[in-house]
Design a protein that fits this description.
- This protein has eleven helices and nine strands.
- The protein has about 375 residues and is α+β, with helices and mostly antiparallel strands.
- The chain folds into three domains: about 10-115, Acyl-CoA dehydrogenase/oxidase, N-terminal domain (Butyryl-Coa Dehydrogenase, subunit A, domain 1, Orthogonal Bundle), CATH 1.10.540; about 125-235, Butyryl-CoA Dehydrogenase, subunit A, domain 2; about 240-380, Butyryl-CoA Dehydrogenase, subunit A, domain 3.
- The chain has a four-stranded antiparallel β-sheet with strand order 2-3-7-6, with no helix packed on it. Strands 1-4-5 form a three-stranded mixed β-sheet, with helices on one face.
- The radius of gyration is 21 Å and the shape is globular.
- It starts with 10 loop residues before the first helix and ends with a helix.
């Protein structure tokens, strides 16, 4: 079987991929166990990634980014998946940057994007609340206008990069009297020395232990009114809906890379594992199970490549992005589970990569909109 190459890959991307892979092996992978134990990545890691040019790869150079296409960001996420390194929340950094790029003023773009690209400013998305996850219209955090400031009260939970967050893209209700989407706005919150802002506990999760997932609290926090994203209030829900296909495709990229890694390491394990006078690979069940996983991973890769090409062409619609998110993450979890089973008892040991892959994969079906919500979005397009 000839090796498959994604149609969006080219020589420049291949060189970029090699540099990302070398960087991760030298600078991130040796620290992954420690980051998982401490439940957050070292702050210096963000600066190193920025210096290496791996942050905001698809943001224009005039704002400090790499000036590339989405393909460059996809390469970074793929290499993180292949490493594997799950502690580094750079996908959230990319999402926050694209909110600023799409809806921010020129002043906002020049104030925040270069610092994010350099790793000097870490971004987080403050959408989910204790009582509002996939139903974003159910948020209760408020921002009350007082002169040249907004006064923010409320809380957020399950916030990736929450420990290090310097800039939060915060979903708030700017007009509680309004119902539904028109009540919601996005406000950028700079957290340094911010009175009334507090980072709560780092949450204990089933997997992705190295990502600093936290609770955030806002008690009378005053933020300049100029930090509103967009020209008027009430645009936040529409902005989120427009950007979610980008976020969901980032998740899909990670899902496919993880599938491919799981199949590769399990195939090698099956060839090396001795039993019944031969190897695990000699058993027909093993070969058939891996054949199924390999086939589904390849189908996922081809579908993902189509989505990446459509995103770069500006034609990726919400329904297709939702299909990619739910189907690919479902397959990611199924393949991880099948591959863990083939490892036997060793698959249940955390020291084996497949165990971490299995645990780290589970949340992919939940965040950025639960997969059940993705199916509802696809159904609406029928």
């Amino acid at each position: 079987m000839s090796a498959y190459t994604s149609p969006w890959m080219n020589d420049d991307l291949a060189i970029f991929r090699k540099s990302v892979r070398q960087f991760l092996r030298a600078e991130f992978l040796p620290h992954e166990d420690r980051w998982r134990a401490q439940h957050h990545i070292d702050r210096e890691a963000w600066l190193k990634a920025g210096q290496a040019g791996f942050l905001l790869a698809d943001v224009p150079e005039e704002y400090g980014g790499g000036g590339g296409t989405f393909a460059y960001t996809a390469v970074v996420l793929e290499e993180l998946g292949y490493a594997p390194v799950t502690s580094f929340g750079c996908s959230v950094q990319e999402i926050v940057a694209h909110y600023v790029l799409a809806y921010g003023s020129e002043t906002q773009r020049r104030a925040w994007l270069p610092r994010m690209a350099a790793g000097e400013m870490v971004g987080a998305i403050g959408m989910t609340e204790p009582g509002a996850g996939s139903d974003l219209q159910g948020i209760k955090t408020t921002a009350r206008r007082e002169g040249d400031h907004y006064v923010i009260d409320g809380s957020k939970t399950f916030i990736t990069n929450g420990w290090h967050a310097d800039l939060i893209c915060l979903a708030v209700k700017t007009d509680p009297a309004q119902r539904g989407a028109r009540a919601i706005s996005l406000i950028m919150v700079e957290t340094k020395d911010l009175a009334g802002y507090r980072v709560g506990r780092t949450l204990e999760k089933i997997g992705q232990h190295g990502q600093d997932t936290c609770e955030l609290f806002f008690d009378g926090v005053r933020v300049p009114a100029a930090n509103l994203l967009g020209s008027i209030e009430g645009q936040g829900f529409a902005q989120m809906m427009e950007q979610l296909p980008y976020e969901r495709l980032l998740i899909a990229v990670s899902a496919v890379a993880t599938m491919e890694l799981a199949v590769d390491i399990t195939t090698q394990y099956a060839k090396d594992r001795k039993l019944f006078g031969g190897t695990l690979m000699n058993l027909q069940h093993t070969r058939f199970a891996l054949a199924e996983c390999k086939t589904e991973a390849h189908i996922g890769r081809v579908f993902l490549d189509s989505c990446i090409e459509r995103l770069m062409a500006g034609t990726l619609d919400t329904a297709t992005a939702s299909m990619a998110k739910w189907w690919l993450t479902d397959k990611q979890c199924a393949i991880a589970d099948a591959c863990l089973q083939l490892h036997g008892g060793y698959g249940y040991m955390v020291e084996y990569p497949i165990a971490r892959i299995w645990a780290d994969s589970r949340v992919q079906r939940i965040y950025a909109g639960a997969n059940e919500i993705m199916k509802e979005l696809v159904a609406r397009s029928l």
